[in-house]
Amino acid sequence: GGSALAVHAYYCTVLLANTAKTLVFAACRHSLGRAIHVLSRCPRAERSEKSGASARLTFALPQVMVLLAVATHSLVPLLGAGDGACADPEATGQGGGGCFSGRFPLELWYPAAALATPLYQVVYALQLVAIYCTCHTAINVDLFFFAVTNHASSHLQELNDALCRMGVRHTPVNRRRGSDESDHSADGKHGNGPLRHTSEESLVRAEHQRARYQELVRLIRVHQTITRAIKELEPVISYALFGPILTNVLNICLHMLVLTTERDNMGTNSKAFVGILFNLIQNGLYCSFGETLTHQSDRLFISIYSSGWENGCRRFKKAAAILMFQTRKPVQIKVAKLYTLSRRTFLQLLNNSYGLFNLLYQVKNPE
Q1: How far apart are CA 222 and CA 160, in angstroms?
Q2: Which residue ranges does the record annotate as region Disordered (predicted)?
Q3: Does the residue 331 lie in any domain?
Q4: Of the four listed, 65, 131, 216, 344, which is most buried by Cβ atoms within 10 Å?
Q5: Which is nearest to 72 in space by CA: 255, 269, 281?
Q6: How far apart are CA 140 and CA 158, in angstroms?
Q7: How far apart are CA 212 and CA 215, in angstroms?
């Protein structure tokens, strides 16, 4: 019925999308290598304990979802909730020697011999291994994308923090006042103490301005390095993620249709529910990492105004103007030049899934 069609469409779309994603990454490995080489030139970004724990949790979430998907597909048939049509191997003699069975992790067409021991156990185990390897291969490609974007976002956050720290620093002033020996000459008359004090203060201020300028130049070079790496990555990521995001939107719709129409089949409903979670988390992580990268890049334009540029020397102001010109447009990752990875895009994808589900539901249940 409709649930079987939805399940088979899910298998086909997921397999095709992840295969295309892996092939794109493999074909563009030289561009990815150049981007990683460029990012490796940046100094190691320091992160707080809270952000480190959040990153570890985010990277562990897809792997947990893989284990949950494998566990669901392995337990549902064993509990008897996945029995589909033609579950009895003796009933397959009139149907061409095979049938669609729900007694396996994958609800596909099987010959009658596959439903008998010991071939049944062998096929069952091979399917679980195939599901685990396929999911992990797809997730590893995603983890690469998450790691690169998280690395770039950490460096951009370091740039923002460094610019803000430059603004709160005060110009060091020589507070030491001349003593009687320094302010007066040996005969008791005023010497050149105040002039010496002014000269030392000017030297300290000039040294401070030079250090600030060199620090700003270093930050500009780091920003250029990150921007160059993102430009290398964007074409690859753009087309590699287009297939998974599009199929996730479609599969969320199909799984919702299964949940609302096949209320008595707990096995199919369990797989559909896990599929919805998997697709939502995958699209959510894509958009979340893209949003973080864009947000940190967009903050740079504001952080420049917090760098104390108005109290800087002429060279510092010119360098600040250069950085401001470079950051006038934040770094963004666009999927197939249509959608920018952001939280707003994630909400639009959810809206598209619900709109498509509503259309299919009205077609199937016109009353």
Answers
A1: 12
A2: 173-202
A3: yes
A4: 216
A5: 269
A6: 27
A7: 5
Taking each helix axis as running N to C, give the angle between helix 119-168 and helix 29-40, from 0 to 180 degrees, rounded to the nearest 10.
Answer: 40
Q: Which amino acid is at 198?
A: T
**What is the rounded distance in angstroms from the CA atom of residue 258 to the CA atom of residue 236?**
34
Task: Please check whether residue 253 is in contact with residue 364, taking contact to mean a CB–CB distance below 8 angstroms.
Answer: no
Q: Among 84, 131, 85, which residue's Cα sits nearest to residue 105?
A: 131
Q: Give per-residue pLDDT as tens, 162-184.
A: 888 887 654 444 444 444 444 44
Q: Assign 107 to helix, strand or coil.
A: coil
Give the pLDDT score at 174.
Answer: 45
Are residues 121 and 136 in contact, defined by beta-carbon separation less than 8 angstroms?
no
* Residue 103 belongs to some domain of the structure: no
* Residue 177 domain flag: no
Residue type, 222: V
Closest CA to 330 of 300, 364, 290: 300
Q: What is the span of the domain harbouring residue 360? A: 2-81+128-172+192-364
**Which of 12, 14, 23, 7 lies closest to 240, judged by CA?**
23
Contact in structure between 254 and 261 (CB atoms under 8 Å)? no
Domain count, the chain: 1
Dihedral pair phi/psi, residue 284, rounded to 5°:
-65, -40
Q: How far apart are CA 284 and CA 18, in angstroms?
A: 17
Q: Closest Cα partner for 73 from 62, 86, 82?
A: 82
Query: Would you state the pLDDT for residue 46?
Result: 66
Phi, psi for residue 129 in degrees, rounded to 5: -65, -40
Report angle CA 348, 351, 356 to the nearest 5 degrees. Answer: 125
Nearest-CA neighbor of 73 among 103, 105, 100? 105
How many CB atoms neighbour CB 257 within 10 A?
Answer: 21
Q: What is the pLDDT of residues 194-245, one digit of tens each?
A: 555 677 777 777 777 788 888 888 888 989 889 888 988 888 888 889 989 9
Is residue 205 one of the residues assigned to a domain? Answer: yes
